[in-house]
Every structure is written in structure tokens, then in C-alpha cells.
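Input set for joint prediction.
Command: fold jointly, output C-alpha cells.
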Amino acid sequence: MDNRSRLQELLPKIVLAPSLIVVLIFVYGFIAYTGFLSMTDSKMLPSYGFVGLSNYSKLWALPHWWRAISNLAIFASLYIVISSVLGLGLAILLDQKIRAEGLLRPIYLYPMALSFIVTGTAWKWFLDPGIGLENTMHLWGWDSFSFTWIKDRNYAIYCVVIAAVWQSSGFVMAMFLAGLRGVDNEIIKAAQIDGASTVTVYRRIIIPMMRPVFLSAFVVLAHLAIKAYDLVVALTGGGPGQATELPATFMYSYTFTRNQMGIGASSAIIMLAMIFSIIIPYLYSELRGEKRP
Amino acid sequence: MSFLRIEHLRKSYGSLEILKDISLEIEEGGFLVLVGPSGCGKSTLLNSIAGLEPITSGDILINDKSVVGLHPSKRDIAMVFQSYALYPNMTVGGNIAFGMEIRGVPKEEREASIQRVADMLQIGHLLDRKPSQLSGGQRQRVAMGRALVRDPQVFLFDEPLSNLDAKLRIDMRTEIKRLHARMGTTIVYVTHDQVEAMTLATRIAVLKDGILQQFGSPSEIYNNPENVFVADFMGSPAMNLLTARVEADGSALRVSLARDGGEPLRLSIPNAPSGLSNYAGKEVLFGIRPEALTDMDGADRNAGSIGEGDCLIEVVEPAGSDTFAVTRLGGKEVVARLRADADIRAGETSRLAFNLDKVVYFDPKTEQRIR
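C-alpha cells >
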């Protein structure tokens, strides 16, 4: 009996232990290892000559890295803003008690079920001037039509934005739709009696009430943007040239193909810091919010 | 002259009829309470008056002008909601001023109106707070302030007190009554609480299943219910409704109530309603409110006719101000309301006084009043 009750007490710990150990080693252990590598003279293989922060100063001196960072700034800001606006707009339209909502909602949500690799490949074909949109328009007889952004150094990053927005805005819409459904109907009635038009009701009352949803959407989209890798690899492979290089693709190429593991590791740590700077304030505000009665 | 008039109002969703031919009216400055169990259509009726839900047929007139088809904001009404429906992102002041802002009232005038209403409701110190920082009672006041500031022709209240705790509810009830006395504006008020209905109303409309059961002053509703539903719904503790047999006693009538293990209790009724003679030899429902059934010393001295009977008391519930005694008559539990210090003990037989003036009779089949 005593043994049995002791076992019962231990059982949850025993069951959880393997996954905890695995997570500790392969997530936190490797984060620490990466942090350590970023301060070593590792080239093709890890080596343990300590060089302090010199990898970081080298990294920030690389034009290639600055390219990746500025691409990330363009990509992340457009991706987050467009996805949020589009998601909110779709959610508002779907919230008008329309017919066939049950059919439309999954249609918009479906791209999220695809992996970024599939999205990237599909959009690569679609945007390719030789086989995609431009070619189709030419076949239909619109010979002057030209859409070559994906081949253009200055515009290729916007193609990444298009594909990423297509993938994520349905998900953002679902988040906003859940938020809109939570709005007390009586508030809308009260606003109607106050004489507010539908546009005013949304602008002055409902959209401000969506603040927590904007915050959640921002956190989800921002961390997707920072770690965006597979989409770029499938869509443009970082090219043309380095036109669509993002920190994640930069990290991979320096660590595994350019034999600059130290610099690659330091770029990984910079990305980790970026994600922490978004997630930690978010978690802090969420957890503090829960404590309030 | 009636100020708010509802004529043959019908409302249906598809084939489901929510409101069935409702006709009501209330004079200017009146306090109309719509009361009924949940799902009776009282909130739908209020929303129809507000214009938040379209009606199927009929007419609604405010100050002799039909408002059917008018947008809610054009009906010159203000509404207080059950959930208060405050705009969570605006301050208290912003909430109160929002309607005026939409109507383009200049800022100084808005400020003055906010101040006037805030003083009236004693919420001046809360004006810069957000609704989430307020207690339930404070939110309730803000919601009322938002309605008051419009100075409308008709106030609509949709169960405004049901989210408050018991003590606050009674305070706010008094407050609403005081405000009504001061402002003199017509009010339509929805509640499921019959005590609220009785205390606040000048006119009560009792609804059930979308049908108007009875419409009248609180004392009419309480003392002269039209049917069993109204009799049972209004009053706490509820009216005792027992099966009684009507017997002819020479030219007069008497009722006989079955008693446990003994002779039935026979009460002669000198001033029986004329319709009751048709029921001689048949059963009727004998309705008597607990306060009309008391100990002999507590009986109403002004009552025209008082019947007496010995009843076996099963349970005694002292409530402080009164003592409730439960006995069994006509096969049902019957609650009598006695003086607090009445000499009564469970398990003993006591003599009870029946105030026969206050008794109402119903047909057991149609459940309608026998007049």
C-alpha cells in the first residue's frame, strides 16, 4: 500500500522525465552550446579556441548580414501589417452573419495547414515568368503583361511577403474571428442606440477591443518572420544574388556551407535575442494579466 | 392619454412565433414592467420597442408617432442593458459622452452634460476610469448615466439589476425608483423578478410564451390575477392553489377542502363570485395567498368574511419578521403567514383564519379566473 501510493506520486514524474531530459538537452543544451560556439574560432567543425566576442564584431561588419537584417525588416513589417489588416478585414466580413460561413472559414484557414515548403514551391511556379502568371497572360493574348518580381533583385523580397501573407492571413483571420465572436452583443446594440454607424462601431469600439488579439497576432507573426527559412529556400533560395537573404538563411549558409561556424552561431544567437525580446514582454504581460482577479 | 402604445404586435422568426398579438399602453411618466419567466418574449418585446429587432406586424407609437421602421437612434429612447454594455476601451466620461459625440454635440455642452449626470448618480470621481476598473454597482450607475444623459422620451431597462448581488440590487432598485420620481420620464423595464416588478411598476404586463397574460396595476395583478399562471408567478412565497370542491349550502355556497386524516374543512363563502355557482358539485382551484391565511389573532380586522379551521401544522419556519407555517389542505402543502410571535408548534393542530375576501377561484381545466 505504501509502495503503491509512493509509485502513484512518482508516476507523473517518471512519465514526464524522458521528455524533460530530451528538451533540456536538445533545446536548452544546444542553445547554450550555440552560445558557446559563437565565442569560439569554429570554422568547418566545432573547435574550442575561445575568441570572445570577435565573431559578433565580424558579423556586424559583414554587408551580407546587413542585407539579411534589412530584408528581415522589410519582410517582417510588411508581413505582419498586411496579414493583420487582411486577417481583420476577412474576419469582419465573415462576422456579418453571412451564409456559408462554415464553408468559407476553412477555405481561408486552409493555407495554414500547408508547410512553408509547399507554399514556397507553389508560389515559385506561380510567380515564375516562364511558366506562371506572366506566361498565362501571354498565352491569353496579353503580350505586354510583365510580372518578373521574383527575378528582380529589388522586388524579390516582396514575392516572399506575398507568399507568406497568403499562408498566414487566414490564420490571423481565425484569431480575429474568435475575438469578434467574443464581443458582447449588447455593446453593439448600445452603440446603435447611441446612433453610431456600423463603420463607427467597428472603428471606435470593436477594433479597439481587439487589442489583445493584435498583440497575439503580432507575437505569432513576428516569430514566424524571424525564423522564416523554409519559405525562402523553397521560393527563391535566398536569391537572386542575396536579394532575399534572411537571418535564418544567412545562419545556415555560414554555419554549414561557408565554414564560418563561429559567425553562423553568433547570428543564431542574435536571432534568439530578437525572438526573446518579443516573447518575454508578451509572456510577462500575459502572466501578470492572469493574476488580476 | 397613452404615451407609449403597442398595438397588436407580432414577431416571429420563421415559423416560430415569439410575440403573439401584444397590445399595451402606458401613460406619460408611467413605469411599465414587463415580467415573465425566461423565454417568455419580454426582452424581444423591449428590443422591438428599441428598434433593435424588426417586428413582423403591428404598431409601436411613442407620443402618438409610429416608430416602426425607425433606426434605434431616431426613436428618442435610451436603454440600459443587463451586461451594462459599457464600451471597454473608453473611460466612464467617454462612455457617457459617446452618443452626444456621434450626434455632434459641441465639447463644452458634452462636458456640462457629463457633469450633470455624474453629480446625479454620484460617479463624478470615476469619470476618468475604464469600465474594467469599476465594481458591478459602479458599472450599473455608469450605464444609467449613459442613458440619462440622452434625456429621452422613453427609458428602456433590460434586466438591469440581475447581475448585482442581493443587497446592491435592493439599493439600486430604490435608486431607480427615486430617479423615476425625479425625472418623471416614461420607463419600460424588463425583469424576471416579480418583487422588482411589484415594487417599481405603475403598470405590470405579465407575459408567458409570447402571450400577454395580464396587464394592470401591481395591486390588480397581485389581488386579482386573471389566471393560474399570474397567480402563481406573482408573489413570494407563491399563492397557495388547492383543489376544493364547491358545495351548495342552501342558497349559499361553501367549499370543502380535504384534510389529512379527518373531516374535510368546510368554509362557507358569503360573497362568492357569481360564476362560482355554476361549479356546485365540481372541483375548482382555491387560491389563497399566505398572508390571507394566518393565526386567529393576526387576521385582518377589516376583512368582510373570515373562515376558520383547525389544521395540523407540519413545519414551522420562523423568518424573524413573520412565521411561516406549512400545513396540508386539499392534498397540497399550504403556507400560512403568521405573526412572528404566534403560538404555534409543528405536529400540533392550530386554528387558522382564512381571509375569504382575498380568495380567488380558478377553473381547474382552463386555469382561468372564475368571476
